[in-house]
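Q: What would this chain look like folded?
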Amino acid sequence: MAALGWLTPRRRSATARSVLAGEAAAEAARKSSQELAELAALADTAAERPSEPDFPVVGDDLAAAFFDLDNTVMQGAALFHFGRGLYKRKFFQRRELAKFAWQQAWFRLAGVEDPEHMQDARDSALSIVKGHRVSELMSIGEEIYDEYMADRIWPGTRALAQAHLDAGQKVWLVTAAPVETATIIARRLGLTGALGTVAESVGGVYTGRLVGEPLHGPAKAEAVRALAAAEGLDLSRCAAYSDSHNDIPMLSLVGHPYAINPDAKLRKHARDREWRLRDYRTGRKAAKLGIPAAAGVGALAGGTAAAVALHRRRR
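A: My prediction, written as structure tokens:
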């Protein structure tokens, strides 16, 4: 009210005006002091809240990280790049390449994995490697990695994997791609190892049959669960990273799920559950369009050791 009196038109003495000015300044100072006190109280409250712990936790040997491969660690599908390399080396004809490319386009544009396409692609891939030696495909895989895959690794995802390695944790690829291809990529990136689809081999030669089924969807979750048990890991302290809603079972297993370059369904699921999300894509509508991996066609090659071990266990 003192300030309002000071604004009235009637004349006051210099002393009265000084009094009014002083009162107004005092009132303003009191209000600002209260505001500062409130801000300080808020700051103290925030300081008392427990901050989010650093992640990954250095020295936590009960934790590990599991990374999907296609469109999570690497742009595109590893099997498609591998197929390009085999075509270049005349493993199959142009007609088969065109058919394979169409199936890949379907995966990308439709956002779903057609069961008939998946089965057809698996059968085609297995027929291509049937009769070839495992060592031959491994050697060719090294060359194909340099030709088509090395430049397609997402730097952002690679940095996440390195953070786990720097913390002293193991890092595994978990993919429906052939286990040999996945193992090559894991080794080149300095990761611990890889879980992948296994094709049967006898005497080091592919038979054209799978061991079990492609490592896809729920099968990935079972593989992670089994590896965690064998390694003595605490899944609640582990992390998993994927771009695809098909990997929700695997992501749901761990205490630290990440959606990386997610498709539309995974993005929604991650937001609903407040999962962490990273998108390293650029260009047209990358944030809106999911680019699903060709997960269901990961039967191109297999692991000799895994096949033999499984065969012995069954016997």
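Strands lie at 64-67, 170-178, 193-197, 199-202, 205-210, 239-242, 256-260, 276-278.
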